[in-house]
Prior knowledge:
Layout: E1 16-17, H1 22-25, E2 50-51, H2 53-59, H3 72-75, H4 85-93, E3 96-99, H5 106-110, E4 114-118, E5 125-126, H6 128-141, E6 146-148, E7 154-159, H7 164-173, H8 200-215, H9 222-227, H10 255-261, E8 289-292, E9 306-312, E10 319-326, E11 345-351, H11 355-369, H12 380-387, H13 389-400, E12 421-424, E13 430-434, E14 440-441, E15 443-444, E16 447-448, H14 449-460, E17 464-466, E18 472-477, H15 482-491, H16 502-505, E19 507-509, H17 527-540, E20 551-554, E21 568-572, E22 577-582, E23 593-600, H18 604-618, H19 626-633, H20 635-643
Parallel strand pairs: 8-9, 19-20, 20-21
Antiparallel strand pairs: 1-2, 3-4, 4-7, 5-17, 6-7, 6-14, 9-10, 10-11, 12-13, 13-18, 15-16, 17-18, 21-22, 22-23
Amino acid sequence: RRGASAAPRMAEAAATDAEGGPAKWMVAGQQFGPQAPGQPADKPYTNMVKLNPVEGVKLASGPPHAQLLSPLKEELPTEEISISHDAVVVLKHHGSYQQQNRELRGADKAASYQFMLRLKMPNGECPPDLYLELDRLADVHGQGDLRATTRQAFQLHGVIKSDLKTVIRSIAATGASTLGGCGDINRNVMTPAARLPNNAAYVYAKRYASAFAELFKPSTAAFSELWLDGEKALSTEYWHKDLYDLCHNVHTPADIDAVRAHDTGRGVVTGHSHEPLYGTTYLPRKFKIGVTVPGDNSIDVLTNDLGLVVLLEPDGKTLKGFNAYVGGGMGRTHNKASTFARIAEPLCFVPARDALELGKAVLAAQRDHGNREVRANARMKYLVHTLGIDKFRELIGSYMGAPLAPVLPLPPWVEGIDWLGWHAQGDGKWFVGINVQQGRIIDANGVRLKSALRQIASELGLTLVLTAAQSVLYQDVTDEQRPRVEAILREHGVAPVEEVDMLVRHSMACPALPLCGLAQTEAERVMPDINRRLRDVARAVGLPEAASFTTRVTGCPNGCARPYAAELALVGQGPDQYQVWVGGSPVGTRIATVLTDKMKLADLEPTIEPLLAAWKAQRAQPTEAFGDFADRVGVEHLSQFARSYAPAVAQSA
């Protein structure tokens, strides 16, 4: 039943009055925050006069020990099938979004309120007991499938409001959580999916990803009060295993709490009694971290707010530190030049002993100086852009109490890494990557992928890892288990990676319609057909079967599938209309450029064929990637070539 609570409770005013000074926005004992920054910075907004309404919702969401509680607490027990706008703001921080089926109309649409849950899964790791529970929950309380995201986490769709507590409580009982999956806090921390236990760089990347996930998790008791009846979770979060003997001041998982509270006196720690880093109103927007190793950019590390690259000492075993990059991000808005996609810039080299403190300083700078007046400009990329990288570097140095060292040289990124197929781990075991089209784990169209993954988890007990490209990987496969894994996949119609078109392997799409409230057109549901049509075009212009490029499709400009870092991207721009972007780097180090607006999907062939024909004919060398070629010659040249091009492929019906 849909009632009054479905209507927005948020004030209709476009902004929240911030008058009353810092005391209004900080709890007793809190010294620092957006209205009283720990370190000064010169920027064109103050966060003191007018704030976007979400800030007021966070401020009023609960007492200091249990922020992010109300009005969700009051609305969850009601018989209404939906919740208010303010409750949705709070719920996002617990890892859930309210959705409707947008293909329905009238009373049917009004009755379709449901919730998507997103897990926090550092490194994309999913132990077998967690996977089996998610598989069960999807069947019993969801829509019967799971979805792997582009940030290495699972989403569970179709949960009704009355089942939310049951599902979240069940997930917590396995040692997992949805807290940190969404909201104005640190999101899932990414690393390459490869399991290489004898490669120190990969090992440190995973361990520090878990450390940052733990360091930046919200400390509010609201999660326990809402979903666990005020009790602690029955199981310890499984990523805690990575936190033993991490560094000089982290020897057990509990030591992360001490690192979080450690106050250098530079304004990083707010003084808030329960949220020492986040304070009363958390961050202006979401905050994303990726950790990788030299050469491997399979996670698009430069699209994060904070990207870290592991650096070892000459012995190849000892952690030297990290190169840090800041200010990446994908989201933008059509026809709004003040919003844009951005690749992260070099910040500094940080020694291993200071890595966690650097992370705290970067988060504090965004907490204090991120734009809380205009939410569309609240990501940290806009702060870095506004200040400029040099002044932003000075700002972080002021929080750290010392100037920052320049980044160290890195080798080139390696093109085409996706970790699919069989790979030796180096310890006598194997890992295997399995392609999942657009991350949808379902039994459909003759491929019983969901059943296959369930059987692997239940029969072999293997840990699953999600890749940053929405596929899955199983690690620690023994020689004896490998034939059985291959047999299970074959019996369920799951093709070996050698039979998967490279265009498919290198493509991604967001869920888009029918459930995403932001989608302007299709993405996931049309991606298989787009890949097929792109391959047909490539064949028509004489490109070899192995020819490939990264292709990403999103239903809106918010960029969940990281389209602007792709070689070719279609970005939803209205019903059955796409903005076409070309020229992103094949190794994720460059933002693409708009080629054309409002392309109808039926016009895919006449739009793309000239581009591929030009690539084939005008490459600087046979190995020049499509994205590098498009960037080199520019969109004006490509458009001019297209105007005089005689097509080889008929326009799609």
